[in-house]
Design a protein that fits this description.
By secondary structure, the chain is an alpha/beta fold. It folds into 2 domains: 219 residues, P-loop containing nucleotide triphosphate hydrolases (Rossmann fold, 3-Layer(aba) Sandwich), CATH 3.40.50; 64 residues, Alpha-Beta Plaits (2-Layer Sandwich), CATH 3.30.70.100. Helices cover 37% and strands 24% of the residues. It has 12 helices and 14 strands. The strands form 3 sheets. It has a 6-stranded mixed sheet, with helices on both faces. Strands 2-1-4-5 form a 4-stranded antiparallel sheet, with helices on one face. Strands 12-13-11-14 form a 4-stranded antiparallel sheet, with helices on one face. α5 packs parallel to α6. The protein starts with 15 loop residues before the first strand and ends with a helix.
Length: 327
């Protein structure tokens, strides 16, 4: 990991770095040597089944609990020896809203400004700016218990931003939100990153990680099973294919006889060819069909998605995080 300068930070240092993080509770090892390197101004998503240790990672990096082994730096500060520096640089939004439903949204925000030791003038300015940014001005004077789930989540993140953190931990930020509110939250996260904020995201929605994350890590049985961009992870999983469907039985049988390594479905007159989904492979199949004078009525391309990645890395019997949450 990089060595800190006098101000506790190197411009080239990652926002979050960790080497060999370990944590056990009794005889149960939760984390068994976790390595991370998360660049500034990026979105990092941590996926894994329930009990994989995602929340434990967040708690260690945000200094809520200590690690049993390994070391980590957050915002250039060692989590074990400089916890105050870490806490001053981060914001944490948990899975469950931390807002007070009995007071108004603006009062919640002002309380957070006081906790961050902002002056009255500065606090008033920051609160006003964040209420406007998160489209909460009209609701600011209403008790939070009257807010919708999406409004509460926006307020929760707005409160996290009062202190101006450069690194934010979002633990399942869209759980329980309707699709429109979820997409609104995605836009907020994109805007934060465009401002240079680093987002560490845990999520139960695989499509959310696919949509937002620059890099994704899959945590399984205490270790990082795989890490990379969504496209990189998908390319590691076999199962991509091109599917051809015919209405003319003779065309179907001609194609099935001529094509190699093809799976047949005689009932629906469909053929499945292994494929990585590249443009070159698709063009090759189309050129062959043209040259042979065979016309397929339907052609579809399937490439592995994050569901496929998740099942391949954690076992086909494992439920996705979203499925586990619905139980």
């Amino acid at each position: 990991m990089p060595t800190s300068t006098n101000d506790g930070r190197r411009p080239s240092s990652p926002a979050i770095s960790a080497v060999g993080l370990r944590k056990a509770y009794g005889d149960k090892t939760v984390l068994d040597g976790i390595d991370l390197c998360i660049p500034e101004g990026s979105v990092f998503a941590l996926l894994g089944p329930n009990g994989a240790g995602k929340t434990t990672v967040v708690k260690i990096l945000s200094t809520l609990i200590g690690a049993d082994g390994g070391q980590a730096e957050v915002a250039g500060h060692n989590i074990a020896t400089e916890p105050d520096g870490v806490r001053a640089a981060i914001g944490v939004t948990g899975q469950f809203s931390a807002v007070d439903g009995l007071i108004t949204g603006e009062e919640n925000m002002r309380l957070m400004a006081d906790l961050n030791h902002l002056s009255k003038r500065k606090g008033k300015q920051v609160v006003a700016e964040l209420l406007e940014r998160f489209d909460l001005v009209e609701a600011a004077g209403k008790p939070v218990q009257s807010y919708s789930g999406g409004m509460k989540r926006r307020l929760d993140i707005a409160m996290t931003l009062v202190g101006g953190p450069r690194i934010i931990f979002l633990d399942e930020p869209t759980t329980g939100l309707d699709p429109r509110s979820r997409h609104n939250m995605w836009q907020i996260i994109r805007e934060l990153v465009s401002d240079g904020v680093t987002v560490f995201l845990t999520t139960q929605y695989l499509e959310e990680a696919d949509e937002l994350a620059d890099r994704i890590a899959v945590l399984h049985e205490g270790t990082i099973a795989a890490e990379g961009s969504a496209d990189e992870l998908k390319r590691t999983i076999p199962g991509g294919h091109i599917r051809l469907r015919f209405t003319d039985p003779s065309a179907y049988h001609s194609a099935a006889t001529a094509l190699r390594e093809v799976q047949r479905d005689d009932e629906v007159l469909a053929l499945q060819l292994p494929s990585g989904g590249s443009q070159r492979e698709l063009r090759s199949v189309l050129d062959w069909l043209d040259a042979a004078g065979i016309e397929a009525d339907e052609l579809t391309v399937h490439t592995p998605d994050l569901d496929d990645v998740f099942f391949a890395l954690t076992g086909n019997n494992a439920a996705t995080p979203a499925e586990e949450a619905a139980r």
